[in-house]
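Example with several molecule types.
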Amino acid sequence: MEMHTGDGTMNGYFRTSAITGLVSAVGLMLILCTGLSAQEVTSTSGSSGSGGSSPAKTQDEVNLTGGYEIKSSIEFGVRFRSLDGNEDKYRSDLNYKAGARLFNSSFFARAEESDGKPFDSILVTSSGWGGDPNGYARVNVEKLGWYKLDTMFRRFKYYNHLLNLANGEHTQNTVHNMGDFDLTLLPQNRTVKFRAGFSYDDNEGPAHTTFDYQRDEFPILVDWDTKAYDLRFGVDLSFGGFNFSVTEGFRDFKEDHRYFISGFEPGENPSPNSSLTSFERRMPIDGRTWYHKFTGHKYWEGVAEVSGRFIYSDTKTDFTFSEMITGTSSNGTPIVLDEYSASGDSSRPHGNGDIGVTFFLGDKVEISNTFGVTSYRISGGHVFFNSILLGMNPASTSEDLIWRFTDYERIMNTLEGSVDVNKFFNFYLGYRYTDRKVELQGLDADLQSPSSSAFFREGENTTNAFLAGFQAKPFGKKWRINFDMEAGDGDNPFTRLANNEYTQFRIKNHFAPTDELSISVSFEAKDNSNPGLSVSNPSDILVADVRSTSFGVAVSYMPNANVTVNGGYNYTYLNAETDIIIPTRNFGNGVGMSIYDLRNNYGYFDVWFRPHPKVSIFGAYRISKDTGEGNDFIGASRTIVGSYPLTFQSPEVRGTVKLFRNVDWNIGYQYYDYDEKFDVPLFGNFFSQDYRAHLPYTSVTIYLGRRD
Amino acid sequence: MITRKLVKATLLGLWAVILAIWLVYGIQSRAVGTLVAEPGSTQAAEIGANQDDYVGSESCKACHEDQFKGFSKTKHSQLAQLEDWKDKATGCESCHGPGRLHIEEADPTKIISFKDKSPKQISENCLSCHSGKEDHNQFRRSEHYRNNIGCTDCHSAHGPTDHPTQVGSITYPAINSEDNPGRGTVKMLKVSEPQLCISCHQQARAQFSQPFHHKVLEGQMNCSDCHNAHGGFELKNARLAVGADAVCVKCHTDKQGPFVYEHLPITVEGCATCHNTHGSTNPKMLKRNQVRQLCLECHTEILQPDLAPGVPSFHRQDEARTQNCTVCHVRIHGSNTHPAFFR
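Resulting structure tokens for the full complex:
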């Protein structure tokens, strides 16, 4: 078995990572030991700090460091990896690599006494730093009465190289960093609170895409680059029993991918003569959104409650476009220079207005109504210029003015009533009315002829839906049954995949006969039908039917403090059969069918037990198994069958030994097995996407403030 | 058409009237938000209490030591330190009402107990302080409330539940425990997200375990990043981003638009038309495992409404070259320069 790292066999990267990890681990241990040796004061929980340190602490005593009760854990170590099979698919799914890691950490400090301290509590949690594909760190700091700060940093190393998506030619290997910082001043003030927030989003890295040109397809390299920054300020006010919130926000976002080729590209289609010798494209987009949000709320105790919201946002983008190509056309003529350029802008003013009211008729009956209007208009256009110089011919040019407009409006009203029959049973009934209207307009003008053409299309969709549900508790709190359903009847759906004539219901059982055992059983079902008339033959009714059911059971059992067992099974059945028009070589367009089947079995089981006070063992097994029959195209009946026979399983085991009161040593092993059971046809060859990954690891967990 | 316009006009008119009544009544009202067991409140009156009957949380400690220990570390217990809450927050008695009679007579009926209250009744107690916050305003019309799921089904008012520390998966972060505090600790949740949510929404656990999924079980995302468990004006308790946009565009910046050439399903139906937002066996979390199925199911020349054009006859589905729609239609989420999303 071969050891792999991110880009191949075991190499210097792994050794460097291991050394780095070891150095980091030693450093962390030093820091923590320093923390451990800091002045500690032992206090009885729930009372102010007093007294000296005590070597033998009871369950009721806590350590105070600088007046703070600290609880912390940090787990760091080294992960190894052995992989066989399709590494690209493995990296697209999981992307765990070998090397040193900070697996998880948690730091929590809470002031025993608030006076004079910069914060009352701070919580820092993190996971996945040091080379894992996903990492996060969250910081929550609070000073009662003064401020509350919530921050989050996230990093996703996104890798995507799948053979069954765009012939495996749309790949991505980017790093996506995100951060959110939200500060609330005077968080407990009953009259006014102030809010400020900042977010950033940065996604960069190499990628591949394709370009359809001169009756051929060309692989194109991309320097992926998107960025966004958000700023928001708000104030919450309460007076006269009214509660108001006002938020003003601004978002700036940019996209500036660079598209290029590194050398001669013959194209993927063998029949035409087209090729590229150079290709360069830029189309930077600069966008910004101003948004304004107002919410109001009023509650009359036992009588009524009203809440409302109004949001208005205005998004605008400016963009330019330039593309320069040299190569050979489909008929073999040299393309001396094919040059495109455009500049334009677009805008989307968007308004949401919602209001909800509930009337309380005594203690047992409530009637509520929620009404909302959504409206936006998207308007955009550009002037597009093309100049192409073919062989010895004079340059051919074109210049077009393009404009597109989308107007969307939705009105939705939901009326509901609920009755608490007694403390064991309550039910509700409701009705939702939705009306949507969309208008599309466009203008294409040839500025050189000059000539123009325009179009206008519109659609309106109305849906009436009935809602119902109940909660029953046959044996008090030990058994809870929730049932809810929705049945809708619509017309003129905008898309065939959307809800039209649908029924969905779900029932959930939660049964906890004892404090140690709980059993949950759920069942969900949904069907949707979208009949439509064919344009070419209006007597033909083309149907889109989707039926799905899902059954799930979960058991949790904790007989004592040394054993926990969890397990569950979920089965999802989905059958989508849609009449579609399928073009074929010999018979042109004709009615066929798209069939998608999902028969997914998901099961999990995990057990934790502590056979000895210093030893604990965790084991888990998860499997997702879709028993579909594979992809197929049955040309004679114009039928596309899409389904998966795949199995994705991941057993895991971990042992922990408590070396000292505050130090654990862990050793574990994870295994991932992906098996699609059929190969992907690609360019006349067949490729497997199966993989098997072995991920053993060892780590140390250091605790602060750990209880005996 | 006329009927629809009449319905719209009626609804709008009705709501304008309600809004006006609300504003007029509200301006004239002198009601203020009250704690449930504030002296003089309905609930306090329920057990015949007055100001002298409040004895302080220390008096509860003797019998309810466990609850007191947890509660004393919460913000609930510390509120009394703040000037703004001095006359409102009274420790345990803020929710349970005055304790003098309960202590003197050792009578469990002389204190407000939530053991036999319904989730809605318990929630009313919490909302007496916690309503009015933007995130909570719609709770009484939320899916959870409608299905009788109350505040204490998820939150622990006496402080975070100290679960025993158990080592677990290296991939999925453990729940908050006595030695391993987490976000559930500061939010006073019974269990951390996402374990809290998937304990009821079991199907979501299966979806987040598919080969392609949002990293929720891994801890990088929370259910509450996309959903507001306290309800909202959007279906499925979904959140919005950047004002009025779908929550998806907060992270998927390049899909935000607006574009000159919008792809209508995204514009009018949303991302979930083509994607299973929790997870899928299919690449890109698509609802079909062949992209062409998704495309052809709409682009099939349906007469009403005529919003999606059919595919030209040279898109032969029995030829490899034209089976992968997105090889050519690469900017399928919207384009500024090409009506067929080629660039």
